[in-house]
Amino acid sequence: MPVDLHVHTTASDGSVTPEEVVKQALHLGLEAVAITDHDTIEGIEPALNAARPAGLEVIPGVELSTVYQDRQVHILGYFVDLHELDFLAQLTFLRSTRLERISRMVQKLKEMGFAITMGQVLAISGSGSVGRPHVARALIELGSVRTIADAFEKYIGKGCPAYVPRFKYAPAMAVRMIRAAGGVPVLAHPGISNCYDLLPGLVAEGLLGLEAYYPGHTWELTACYCRQARDMGLFVTGGSDYHGPGHKDGGQLGAVTVPYKVVEEMKKCGKRGVPGGRNEKGRAD
Ligand code: AMP
Ligand code: ZN
Ligand code: FE
Ligand code: FE
């Protein structure tokens, strides 16, 4: 039975609630779905509650944006201990840097003459991870732009007048954070991030998986990643990166799936990440 291991919700920059994701996943006949919001685990519990009575499995996940030499590298983390206080504190810190960055962007937009307020942006984002898509939606509400793409192109995209960069850890730090919380770190969409060369270094830090199956990956790329993952003793994962209809990133829910066996293998890692048949660095023994 198929599982989609990369899904966003309204807890971060998705436009679909966790409950609605569960409903759609059931409709599609998925066996499990991983909720992998940016810098927050807030969407997981509502998804678990909605999925439990229906017999759908929700896999706890998170996606951390990192940067290495100007390259945007995303690290997914599965099965982190949701009660690990250090990890939760680090997510809280990342969300606070998001908040500060967005409030600086809102200030810039105000100075440019827009009637936007932080209250309006936060009413749109809710209590999860605030980001530029929420600013874009505020600008649409105000009638200042027609579409999200317009907002990015004119005002909030990189290099635009209201743009402020966001704080990001290095990829190795994200891998260590996830491992320290007993989770399984996976390099997300390597084909999009152009970060293939970082793989050996990240494996040495404790990376355990590679997201070979992804909407933007060609079959050739996918085959190459599968081979590389096998050679390095990494899990081969995949998912749609669903954010809701019409979002720039990812595909439809369930557009990319992997067999449930991958989940079983990840679960065998257990707390503190000692995978069956792998040494503590994640390589096959
Ligand atoms: P942030 O994390 O606040 O920097 O925002 C990242 C989010 O903005 C992701 O959901 C991206 O898909 C979205 N995004 C980035 N660039 C664009 C764009 N040009 N048009 C629409 N959405 C974008
Ligand atoms: Zn996203
Ligand atoms: Fe990503
Ligand atoms: Fe994602």
Q: Secondary-structure blueprint of this entry?
A:
Blueprint: E1 2-7, H1 18-28, E2 32-35, H2 44-51, E3 57-68, E4 71-78, H3 85-111, H4 118-125, H5 132-141, H6 148-156, H7 171-180, E5 184-187, H8 190-193, H9 199-205, E6 209-213, H10 219-232, E7 235-238, E8 258-259, H11 261-268
Parallel strand pairs: 1-2, 2-3, 5-6, 6-7
Antiparallel strand pairs: 1-8, 3-4, 4-5
Helix pairs in contact: 1-2, 4-5, 5-6
This protein binds adenosine monophosphate (AMP), zinc ion and fe (iii) ion (2 copies).
The site of zinc ion has 5 residues, from loops.
What does this molecule look like?
The structure is a single chain. Helix 1 (18-28) crosses helix 2, helix 4 crosses helix 5 (132-141) and helix 5 (132-141) crosses helix 6 (148-156). The protein is built from eleven helices and eight strands. A hairpin with a 2-residue loop joins strand 3 and strand 4 (71-78). The two termini are 29 Å apart. It has helices spanning 18-28, 44-51, 85-111, 118-125, 132-141, 148-156, 171-180, 190-193, 199-205, 219-232, 261-268, and strands at 2-7, 32-35, 57-68, 71-78, 184-187, 209-213, 235-238, 258-259. The chain has an eight-stranded mixed sheet. 41% of the residues lie in helices and 16% in strands. It has two domains: 2-90 and 168-277, TIM Barrel (Alpha-Beta Barrel); 100-156, Orthogonal Bundle (DNA polymerase, domain 1), CATH 1.10.150. The longest helix has 27 residues, at 85-111. It has 285 residues and is an alpha/beta fold. The site of one fe (iii) ion has 4 residues, from loops.
